[in-house]
Amino acid sequence: EPDWRTEEGEPICPETRERDAWAKHRLLVGPLVFSAEWQQRPTPIESGGIFDRSWFEIRDVDEWPAVSEIVRRARAWDDGATEDGGDATASVLMWKLRTGELVIADATENHIDGSKVKPLKVSTAKIDGRNVIVSTPQDPGAAGKTDAGATVRALKEDAKVREVYVTRPDKNKKLRARDLSSVAAPPEGTGAVHGR
């Protein structure tokens, strides 16, 4: 049977909820889950994935927030250890503003050998400054715990970072990205994420 819906984002069973309830639920679960579970489409039409570049406002340098408007700075890492291909070691530096908005201030992607990951994190932390919170992942097993501990020590001792957190990712990357996606996605999202 052909799809009878004529409006983008129209639920497959509109009689089960009020329109505002659908919008709130989409914001809660994100566009990917909403499209799959509530519209019987495995990916949202508007992006085909978790993020769409059009959701982000790119600002010129003269539009960057004043330092006094930034209340929190954090860089999160995702480790890859394949030189010249495969999964990259990547990071995102974000700022939280007094308004509640989030700014993506920097993003990195490096296809490097595993032995170069810790020095990259330390040199990046030195550039970011000691007041930037750093989140680094811990792979499962004893080796992951040892490596994460060595990374934390290097960040605190060599880069003088004040706050370092170790995360133990227990979900795939798409599920972990859902929270940010739901904040960034219009029209139900707040649109409170900006690129720099």
Summarize the structure.
The chain has helices at 19-38, 117-128, 141-157, 173-184, and strands at 57-58, 70-78, 89-97, 102-110, 133-137, 164-167, 193-195. It is of the alpha/beta class.
Layout of strands and helices, then pairs:
Layout: H1 19-38, E1 57-58, E2 70-78, E3 89-97, E4 102-110, H2 117-128, E5 133-137, H3 141-157, E6 164-167, H4 173-184, E7 193-195
Parallel strand pairs: 1-7, 2-5, 4-7, 5-6
Antiparallel strand pairs: 2-3, 3-4
Helix pairs in contact: 1-4
Describe this structure in words.
- This protein is 31% helix and 21% strand.
- It has 196 residues and is α/β, with parallel strands linked by helices.
- The protein has a 7-stranded mixed β-sheet with strand order 1-7-4-3-2-5-6.
- The radius of gyration is 20 Å and the shape is globular.
What level of helicity do the residues show? 25-40%
Uncertain runs are none
Please tell me the overall pLDDT.
80
Structure summary, number of beta strands: 7
Distance from N terminus to C terminus (CA atoms, Å) equals 45 Å
The percentage of residues in β strands lies in 15-25%
Order of helices and strands: HEEEEHEHEHE
Work out the radius of gyration: 20 Å
Envelope shape:
globular
Q: Helix segment count? A: 4
Query: Structural class per helix/strand content?
Result: alpha/beta
Q: How would a textbook summarize the main sheet?
A: 7 strands, mixed
Strand ordering within the main sheet: 1-7-4-3-2-5-6
